[in-house]
Every structure is written in structure tokens, then in C-alpha cells.
Amino acid sequence: MRIIIVEDEKRSSRGLKNLLLTISDECEIVAEASDGQKAFDLILCLQPDVVFTDIKMPYMDGISLIKAIQARGGTRARFVIISAYEEFELARQAISLGVVDYLVKPLTLEDVQKVWRRLQEESFAACREEGEGDLKNEYPDAHPLILKALDIIRCSYATKLSQKDLAESLGISAEYFSFLFSRDIGENYAKFLRHYRIEKAKSLLLTDAVPKDQIPYSVGFSDPKYFYRCFKEETGVNMTEYKKTKC
């Protein structure tokens, strides 16, 4: 899960980052910002899954940041507010903006674990509601563990999703997972994941679901140049040419 932390206090930012990385290897801190204006630009550029933001910051406060991002559109980011102030009016505004949670400093491991579980549950619920084709139906004879892996890929392809982490979540070694995956799917994990992400990118490109320059981040690539190279290798053309041939 790609995360941006927006916090003007370095100690608080570092503490939250350590808590998140302690909770799960699936947490990927893609950026940190010390004020709302910098955060606004980073969110639009990096397309994170989650933004943890303080309320009182220079230039643009947390509430204004969320409103600005929601008004701008084109992002799927969910927000968690962190604040030193347990104020009813702030909490009311946060709820009206649909934030995932409102946490009061100092944050505890239990606080962040609770939010993390909720974020995961919401992610998988949203994935099921999308009504996309179930990858498992394409490989009905695959090992049960590989079927579980396909379900995770379908819901989490846009996050950091290494073979090692996926194998650990299934309770098996990376070597055994690699053997099962190649045997039942017919290609190795890295190649399959890359192909799946490019297929999702093609769909985003044709539907204009997100701005073109944000597509790499939306499908799990952290390096746009590498994404563009993979896209051309998979399709034989660049993104502009691909869209022209399909529209």
C-alpha cells in the first residue's frame, strides 16, 4: 500500500513512519511532506493509496488539503487525519469529507494497527465491488495457494507486491511459491505481474480514468521510465500510439 505522510513535525513524521513499517511489509512510504501545498503536488504526482495528514500545517492545513484533492479529482487516495487536537468541529469536518479515521497524538501502535486493518478491509471490499473478472476463473486447476495469490494480485497489483512478501503472506517459502506459480500459471511471477499491470494501464489509458502521467503510479510502478519501457515491450508501441489505434 503506497503511503504519503504529511506532517510538519519531523519527530512525529518519523514516529508514524516507524509504526507503519513495523506493522506490515506492505506499507510503502513513497513520500513525506512538511506542508499541505507540497503534499498536494506529491499526491497528484505519486497517486498514493493512503495519505496520513496532520491538520495544522503551514500554507495549507489538512482539511483544506483533503478538500483541494477531492475537488481536483483523478485520485483514489484515502485520508487518515492525525492531530494533537481532539476537537469536535475538526472531527465533524473530517467525517463529512469521508476520511478513514481521525487519530489523536501521541499515536500508539494499537491506533495505527487498527487503522491499517480497516484500510485493508476497505481495499478488498472495494476490489470485490468493482465486478472485475476474477483471475481465479482463468486458472481453475491451480493449487489453492496460487488461487489465493491471484486474488491478492487482483486486489493489490497497484501496491508494492514482491514475490517474497506474497509467499510469506501465504505461509510458504519463496522458492516453493515460485515453483507452484510457474507450474500452474505457465510463466514466472514477475512476468505475470508486469503483464497484468500493463493490462490495467491500457484500460486506464483508454478510459481516461486518471491523467496519463499518473498511470504508472496507479498500476504499481514507481519508475515512470521503466513503466514506459515495459508498456512498449508488452504492446509494441508507446502509449500515444496505442491510444490512437484503439480510439
Outline of the structure:
The chain has three domains: 2-127, Response regulator (Rossmann fold, 3-Layer(aba) Sandwich); 135-186; 192-246, Homeodomain-like (Arc Repressor Mutant, subunit A), CATH 1.10.10.60. It contains twelve helices and five strands.
Give the fraction of residues assigned to helices: 55-70%
For the record, the count of structural domains works out to 3
CATH topology of the largest domain: Rossmann fold
Question: What is the name of the CATH class of the largest domain?
Answer: Alpha Beta
- Major sheet summary line: 5 strands, parallel
The SS-based structural class is alpha/beta
Give the CATH H-level superfamily of the largest domain: Response regulator
Strand content is: 5-15%
Quote the average pLDDT.
87
CATH architecture of the largest domain, by name, is 3-Layer(aba) Sandwich
Q: Note the gap between the termini.
A: 32 Å
Using the alpha-carbon principal axes, give the shape: globular
Unreliably modeled segments? none
Radius of gyration: 19 Å
Work out the number of β strands: 5
Order of helices and strands: EHEHEHEHEHHHHHHHH
* Count of helix runs: 12
Q: Strand sequence of the main sheet, in spatial order?
A: 2-1-3-4-5
